[in-house]
UniProtKB/TrEMBL annotation:
<dbReference type="InterPro" id="IPR012677">
    <property type="entry name" value="Nucleotide-bd_a/b_plait_sf"/>
</dbReference>
<keyword id="KW-0677">Repeat</keyword>
<dbReference type="InterPro" id="IPR006536">
    <property type="entry name" value="HnRNP-L/PTB"/>
</dbReference>
<dbReference type="InterPro" id="IPR055204">
    <property type="entry name" value="HNRNPL_RRM"/>
</dbReference>
<keyword id="KW-0597">Phosphoprotein</keyword>
<keyword id="KW-0694">RNA-binding</keyword>
<dbReference type="GO" id="GO:0003723">
    <property type="term" value="F:RNA binding"/>
</dbReference>
<feature type="domain" description="RRM">
    <location>
        <begin position="26"/>
        <end position="110"/>
    </location>
</feature>
<feature type="domain" description="RRM">
    <location>
        <begin position="145"/>
        <end position="221"/>
    </location>
</feature>
<feature type="domain" description="RRM">
    <location>
        <begin position="418"/>
        <end position="493"/>
    </location>
</feature>
<dbReference type="InterPro" id="IPR000504">
    <property type="entry name" value="RRM_dom"/>
</dbReference>
<dbReference type="Pfam" id="PF22976">
    <property type="entry name" value="RRM_10"/>
</dbReference>
<feature type="domain" description="RRM">
    <location>
        <begin position="299"/>
        <end position="373"/>
    </location>
</feature>
<dbReference type="InterPro" id="IPR021790">
    <property type="entry name" value="PTBP1-like_RRM2"/>
</dbReference>
<dbReference type="Pfam" id="PF11835">
    <property type="entry name" value="RRM_8"/>
</dbReference>
<dbReference type="GO" id="GO:0005634">
    <property type="term" value="C:nucleus"/>
</dbReference>
<protein>
    <submittedName>
        <fullName>Polypyrimidine tract binding protein 3</fullName>
    </submittedName>
</protein>
Length: 495
């Protein structure tokens, strides 16, 4: 239907190279649209926020213009995408207010009919719904989502859910539980529009490549009543709630509605995961993917904003090794604040990226993203000594945590935290010995506790997450006694 639209060449008042105006307008200017984008894909960005009255796409210039039915809808859309930039086909799209107050197009009757047809189709597919308000939200729709995670290959924590769903609005409360042998969660947004948009964008997507598939419905509950803040339930509006460790079954007081039981799908086997055929995944950073074509999948990460005075290949090997088996590390010779880290597979790369992007290392907030390089090349024979030192091959390392199929380490992958999990502690090593070991390296020990049932393990709380990250790097594999080496990982628990 776009054949009825005018050719936009500047003569009708539309300027393709607009400056970024700050004055709100019903007309929004979209840039860096993918090649051969469809009108439906552009509309899918806007329909959750209200009715679109006019649309022009400039495919040759990878740009477009949307006119919303109201300025309020345009402002809501702009505010949302400012905090959660959209992507189409895994490509970032930039949106700004246009200098124009309205779009003047020929053949307006044809366009209105076409927009109405697409909007109606979107309603039936769930993007909007009949009886909705100006933002596309059904009147009386719950701000609470019920989430089922299928193909639970990796553990999904409350923190992971919060990280994904907070891209769509303010997450107030989360409750996680297991029902019908399925990991489920109830998640409450501050506003039903955020719940509507999150459901439309995330339902059916994978958290990690090839596994942890989200199935999302609206809950019959209108609000959640969380009694405890712990790893199973959280009220983000109240920091005063107890952890409820004495009564772990009473995390919440709502009666969960009964849903039809469904068979628990088989878990992906790690050795049989076909990475080349999996749909896109959400983690790090979670983003709206409007087309579920597989992204370019690599196992190499680009780590930037490192502290060149402190970083080393060994340091990155230990840190990234918490989330997968690191094969090679290369600190770039001419730009030592950047490094390439090659994991053993794409799933582990996604896992490391989701947990380590934005963490603080040696005083710097590091950035972790997928690299375009399929592998990390080792230096050629003629390379200088410094360049050879900056690149290490760890493929044969004895410190890999995940090389054994079904290793229990797969069940103990958690985000960096101030509390460390220590294991492989010899009986000859006391609490004071361990505290002295960490203190002697400059770390502040806030609390310590041996496991009651197994004194080979303990929890140690340090002053900050950054300190815990550095302590793990320095003291993982530290020789304690008679060839017994300390094992250090991040804990989900606190002391």
């Amino acid at each position: 239907w776009s054949s009825g639209l005018p050719t936009v060449d500047g003569t009708d008042g539309l300027c393709v190279s607009e400056r970024a105006p700050c004055i709100p307008s019903r007309v929004l200017h979209l840039r860096q649209l993918p090649f051969n984008i469809t009108e439906q894909e552009v509309l899918a960005l806007a329909l959750p926020f209200g009715r679109v009255s006019k649309l022009i796409t400039l495919k040759a210039k990878n740009q477009g213009f949307l006119e919303m039915a109201s300025e309020e809808a345009a402002v809501t859309m702009m505010n949302y995408y400012t905090s959660a930039p959209p992507t189409i086909r895994n490509q970032p799209v930039f949106i700004q207010y246009s200098n124009h107050r309205e779009l003047k197009t020929d053949n307006l009757t044809n366009q209105r009919a076409a927009l109405q047809a697409i909007s109606t189709a979107a309603m039936h597919s769930g993007t909007m719904a009949p009886g909705s308000d100006g933002r596309g939200v059904v009147h009386g729709q719950s701000p609470v989502l019920r989430i089922i995670v299928e193909n639970l290959f990796y553990p999904v924590t409350l923190e992971v859910l919060q990280q994904i769903f907070s891209k769509f609005g303010s997450v107030l409360k989360i409750i996680t539980f297991t029902r019908n042998n399925q990991f489920q969660a109830l998640l409450q947004f501050s506003d039903a529009v955020h719940a509507q948009h999150a459901k439309a964008s995330l339902d059916g997507q994978n958290i990690y490549n090839g596994c942890c598939t989200l199935r999302i419905d609206f809950s019959k509950l209108s609000a959640l009543n969380v009694k405890y803040n712990n790893d199973k339930s959280r009220d983000f509006t109240r920091s005063d709630l107890p952890t409820g460790e004495l009564d772990p079954t009473a995390a919440f007081s709502v009666a969960l509605p009964t849903y039809g039981a469904s068979a628990f799908p088989p878990t992906f086997q790690h050795t049989g995961l076909s990475v080349a055929a999996v749909p896109g995944s959400l983690m790090s950073p979670p983003r709206v993917s409007l087309q579920m074509a597989p992204p370019a999948i690599h196992s190499v990460l680009l780590v930037s904003n490192l502290n060149p005075e402190s970083v080393s290949p060994q340091c990155l090997f230990i840190l990234f090794g918490v989330y997968g088996d690191v094969q090679r590390v290369k600190i770039l010779f001419n730009k030592k604040e950047n490094a390439l880290v090659q994991m053993s597979d794409a799933t582990q790369a996604q896992l490391a990226m989701s947990h380590l992007n934005g963490q603080r290392l040696h005083g710097n907030v590091i950035r972790v993203m997928l690299s375009k390089h399929p592998v990390v090349q080792l230096p050629r024979g003629g390379a200088g000594q410094e360049e050879q030192v900056l690149t290490r091959d760890f493929s044969g390392s004895a410190l890999h945590r995940f090389k054994k199929p079904g290793s229990k380490n797969f069940n103990n992958i958690f985000p960096p935290s101030a509390t460390l999990h220590l294991s492989n502690i010899p009986s000859s090593v006391s609490e004071e010995d361990l505290k002295d070991l960490f203190s002697s390296r400059g770390f502040t020990v806030k609390a310590f506790k041996f496991f009651q049932k197994d004194r080979k393990m303990a929890l140690m709380q340090l002053a900050s997450v950054e300190e815990a990250i550095e302590a793990l790097i320095v003291l993982h594999d530290h020789l304690l006694d008679h060839n017994q080496h300390l094992r250090v990982s991040f804990s989900k628990s606190t002391i």
